[in-house]
Structure formats: structure tokens, C-alpha cells
């Protein structure tokens, strides 16, 4: 996945709708939290086995996929707005996690 290309595509989509004035880190972070909550709602009250099976069939698969896409798109907007390189951030975080939680 070319994150930079997706960021430009999302920005163009937003620009076509005159949304850029609203795309600031605060608003995006708030919208991101709402989308994460909607993803959580898909799994609310399911037991672990039901949660594992939710995406095996429709409508659960589409519902979860759409919420995950919303989360990713807002995260890409936020990374662009803050100038954070998500690939570099993930590499650095994984390295820190490996040191913090070494394999047995």
C-alpha cells in the first residue's frame, strides 16, 4: 500500500468537497475516535467466538470492513496533517516494542 498516494487521493477527494478547512489535527483526531468507536460497536456484546466469526459472512464482513476503512482514512489524513511518516513511526515503534517485550 502506497500511503503517500492514498493521502493525496484522500486530500483530492476532500478538496472536491471543500472539506480541507475542517481537516485539522483536532477535528481529525476527534473523527478518528468516533470511527474507532463505531468499529468497537460492531463487536459489542459478542463473545470471543462470535467476534472471531463476525467477518466470516455478510453483513458483518462489510460492516467491519467499512469501519476499518474509515479508521485508516482518518489516520492517513492525520499523518498528512501532522507531517508524521507512518511507515517510519511503525518501524520505530515495532523496534521499541521488541526491546520492551523480548521474545521468550
What does this structure look like?
The radius of gyration is 17 Å and the shape is globular. It has helices at 3-16, 25-43, 48-53, 60-82, 86-100. The protein is built from five helices and no strands. Helix 2 runs antiparallel to helix 4 (60-82). The protein has 104 residues and is mainly alpha-helical. The protein has one domain: Helix Hairpins. It holds the Pfam family MazG-like. InterPro entries: dCTP_Pyrophosphatase (IPR052555), DCTPP (IPR025984).
What attributes does this structure have?
globular, Helix Hairpins, mainly alpha
Annotated CATH architecture: Orthogonal Bundle
Q: Give the class from helix and strand content and strand pairing.
A: mainly alpha
Under CATH, the homologous superfamily reads MazG-like
- End-to-end separation in angstroms reads 32 Å
Radius of gyration: 17 Å
Low-confidence stretches: none
Largest sheet: none
- The averaged pLDDT comes out at 98
The amount of helix comes to over 70%
- Given this structure, which CATH class is correct? Mainly Alpha
Q: What is the strand content? A: under 5%
Question: In total, how many domains does the architecture comprise?
Answer: 1
Give helix and strand order, one letter per element, not per position: HHHHH
